[in-house]
Amino acid sequence: RSTHNEMEKNRRAHLRLCLEKLKGLVPLGPEASRHTTLSLLTKAKLHIKKLEDYDRKAVHQIDQLQREQRHLKRQLEKLGIERIRMDSIGSTVSSERSDSDREEIDVDVESTDDLPADLDWSSSSPSDSDERGSLQSVCSDEGYSSSGVK
């Protein structure tokens, strides 16, 4: 019987120690300094649920950010390839013309018969307009010179 009492005493001491540790981990709020075991366990349960929710949201945000990062990396690679292509086109064009050739270039603004019919110039960027001017100039075989391109 005394062995049983000693074991029970140790069990309760261990339980009390665990509850004290739990009290240190769980935010209890500004209420009374003395909490019942039930209120401590209830607050611990709510705190765990809040942490799980926070963790779930953080994992979701990490997934979103990783998707965005992959998208931006693909976009960066595409822009890098485009830049290399544009740099090589620019160096080819500039090496083909001398300084005197750059002063004035005839551009045919009326003749677009030789251009493909499916070209849509309405949604182009400023750099596209430069390419259009050179394309029209290459495709023209008649017309008049309206301005010089520099």
TrEMBL record:
Keyword RNA-binding: no
Main location: nucleus
BHLH domain mapped to chain residues: 1-51
One GO CC term on file: nucleus
Signal peptide: none
Swiss-Prot/TrEMBL GO biological process terms: negative regulation of transcription by RNA polymerase II
GO molecular function: DNA-binding transcription factor activity, RNA polymerase II-specific; protein dimerization activity; RNA polymerase II cis-regulatory region sequence-specific DNA binding
Residue ranges that the Swiss-Prot or TrEMBL entry lists as coiled coil: 48-82
Composition-biased stretches (Low complexity): 118-127
Ranges for region Disordered: 88-150
Gene3D superfamilies referenced in this protein's UniProt entry, alphabetically: Helix-loop-helix DNA-binding domain
Lineage of origin: Eukaryota, Metazoa, Chordata, Craniata, Vertebrata
Organism expressing this protein natively: Pelecanus crispus (Dalmatian pelican)
Localization of this protein: Nucleus
Extent of Polar residues compositional bias: 134-150
Name of protein: Max dimerization protein 1
Ranges annotated as biased composition (Acidic residues): 101-117
Transmembrane regions: none
InterPro entries: bHLH_dom, HLH_DNA-bd_sf, MXD1_bHLHzip
Keywords: Coiled coil, DNA-binding, Nucleus, Repressor, Transcription, Transcription regulation
